[in-house]
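Fold this sequence, please.
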Amino acid sequence: MNYETREEVFWMIQDLYKKGWSITDIAEEMGISWPTAKKYTEEIPKKQTRPNRKSKLDPFKEYIKQRIEEGTTNCEVLFEEIQEKGYSGKKTILKDFVQPYRKTPGKQGIPRYETAPGEQAQVDWMDCGIREMNGQRKRTYGFIMTMSYSRKRYLCFTTDMKMDTFLRCMIQAFGYYGGIPKKILFDNMKTVVQQRLKKEIILTSEFNDFAFYYGFQVTLCQPGRPRTKGKVENSVKYVRGNFLQRKHDPSLEAWNRDALYWLETVANAKPNQTTGVPPDERFKEEQNQLLPIGGIKPYVVVKWEKRLVKDGYISVKSKKYSVPSTPSLKEVRIRWTNRETFEIWDHQQKIAEYELNRDPRKTFIYRPEHLPKIKGASDEGDMGLATSPHVQKAPEVEVRSLDYYENLQEEESV
């Protein structure tokens, strides 16, 4: 007899007892023993509780709570960690214990868009916060590329998102996949987009050159709609909820080493929640559809430098070099092709190229085609003068003898 039944019997006995029934009659009517009928006329039956059974998870709960306080609620990660500490139970008990600490996930509001094998990849940066790296606290970033068809991911970590770092990450991703996607989707990051107009998108000159070199098409998300690249957004969440919740040695080298191992054993090896197939297995269908990379020499990633244009000149190595005269040209970038040669780029294309001038007498290097020719300016530029070669020279003065002025003075006195 369970507690609910006993409680119902009690109230029936109480009702009969108040009506004047004897305990013997109550016992016969209810089909219970006389002692039980006697007991139920005096007190309500108490709910019997079983003693708490020990769980295999009990020895690990303090450790799990500590990891939850550190931000780790991923049961896959916690299960692996407590298994290493000797846990022999199932994952279900762990999930039930962790569930109250988890936040309810939001709903996906945008329909999923699928692409053909090798057709598209998506790229994004993630901010990993300030971390201890090589003895210094530095803000750390994760670069993620996700193949849209297979969901195969690439991940690496850096301490900045500068152009040269970004391009190196792209090249490493191409090498990891063994090919180049036909299209790559980005958000409107400043290393990719110089300006976005209603009917035109202007890429940065550096990235436009990079994309042309490798032959992939650049596509961009609509402003304010980052979910357009939902596959890499999901990868960011996965990295944040799985990889970042693991323990890593405090160095950039260790993080990148652990990232490659994690990609191989977890991220690309386990079935994807959407496709139900491990990304590595599904990637076999699209690997041959990628643009080949074997015959392409590695892109030479150089450091680009900004220069302000002042009076038609930029400053490089303590000398002034002229640039084409354009009123809207306020800033350019220079790209070193070697130690002695550099290119000057506006927002779209290369506009000039120079070899470093080593002549100590020259401070201005002027090209006539860059600025309007001014009378008196030397075509070869200033030979070390402090003023610009475009300053108008003074007119020549006629040389006269002193006798001329003496005669002129006598004529004025007469």
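The chain has a mean pLDDT of 82. Residues 51 and 58 are 15 Å apart (CA to CA).
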